[in-house]
């Protein structure tokens, strides 16, 4: 909302010394978002005067039309003689009154005016357009003024070129500030000055002579006021003061009748619409649109209406989209001369509509048709329903005054009975909310300044004003008291958190895992939890895969991604693809987050109370209906895992790095991870590891790791040989031992024994490792696979696995015999379980 300071002063007697910056500071302190204060006419100095065009000479021989004019500027030039000016515009004629800037003046933008020779003539000044004066471009060229202004009149004052305009970002709860009336009320309160309310008009009561109105949907339209004005002069133009106020408020002047309705909307906040009465047939009506109905709106677009749209009708059908935009069939006709008679014709009689519509219906209609308007912006934020009669009367008065019209005797008002909204509140409630002592007198005074009627002593009964539909509860009233008393007066106090035990084990684990992955070179990527079901096809999931059972949102942020994710991979792979496409080819990303699976129970739509804690039964019912939400961890890798350099060769990311990420997570959880060859969805069938843990004696698959299938890589546009891992963190945590024990420092030396075992190629190395660990007993400190070899000397279908076994005792130095005995026991068990043979034996 753009608020000219000169207009604001009509309703509040601000001190003459107050600037726009001062008013801005006051309104900001009162809770309004005043973004800027625009200085109109900054740097403008005269002489800038009204001139009358005396003669026009067309200059020939130039690439564009040029005119040499003489203009009467009165005595403003010091001589009283006509001023000679060269001008290229053609929208004025001899006898027109124009705006002339004389030599010595400075226009906005530090544009100094001086006499200069151009097109073979000396131009002593310039005939101005609105754009050159900083009034905005209206596309009409030179400003042509009404004929009543005398030559030499100061145009700076006439056109109100010097002013300050406050630009206010009106929040949805303060729709009343989309009007001069609302901003003036806030200004009067901030300065503790009286308000001259522009809505306080003498309005005649309804009678049977008014234009007939039929409201079929009283919920959608609870108030409809109709007035008529006849005998309008179709040639009447909007006066300069009216056009300038609209321009300063950011609206373009159009025609007198339309300008007046826009002016009253800006003044009182009530949107209005004027119909050409000769084009309206029968009674005006309000109803919902019928399926298939169409309307051509004022912007010339033919629109198909929705059954939820609220529309204005006459006997022919729909003539307007209520609260949004009128129809072209009843548009006010511009004045135009008849080509045969020369008589000027146009709209001479209008019907004025001032109605109050349901905010939700208007908001949805404006969004449905992608048709935001000044009217819909106000209706959807809440318009004062009691302002409609005053707005209609103000419009009638201006049409009578400026267009020579005659007000019709008829007044139509259709009203759905409603009681004012009241709120019960203890007088000390604002003090409890703010933590500041407000006595009863302060609370009552501030609420009355807002416009409330207050009754009672310790327990107040507050009647909310009609223009504040946002005041619905005691906390709303408390906020009004607090903001008017000044947010800056609230003391700064640090919150006192209750004593607690810090983070839970669950939270500590997630933080440890995040730190461990970051330390291993992974970068965390946070992605939206929304997916499309098509991405599950791209991942190659089977038709009966549980991950395909998704939870779909009723009102998604994007229609392309309406489902909640069942896996973290789509988001991570999308982030990897974007980064690779932007030049980052060596990538290692990770994410921990929730995935969502249907609970199998129908959702519950019960509205929980806000004034007390919900019951255990209510919470249990809602939790039962929520999706199952386990927490997963996932990583994706592409490019080089280790860079090559002077230190040696690097190596590309491969399936082993993805498996190691799973091992890292398991170590942080204190869990023994079982790893074996597997096959699932997006992973390469020959390079996929199945991850499992043991929970309560039962083995459970918790994830997969490895290289992605080439088909998935191609379909999703990923780098070649992309690898990934995803694991169920909740299951891993359940299998863990809890807090990870810190490693102890050994005081005795380690004994290392190496063994190379030849096994069938199909025997997993992890299986051999597990058997060796079991056979070696408690003296085994660690085991590491350091070599895998396959060759002709081993035989077809055979491979050699070389392990380094580290033995250590906590209470003594091991002898060679003890270490060798432990190694031999491990090898013997491996031979028994896996058929392993010592290489070279």
From TrEMBL:
It comes from the Bacteria. Its EC number is 6.1.1.20. It is an enzyme of class 6 (ligase). The keyword Ligase applies. Keywords: Ligase. This is Phenylalanine--tRNA ligase subunit beta.
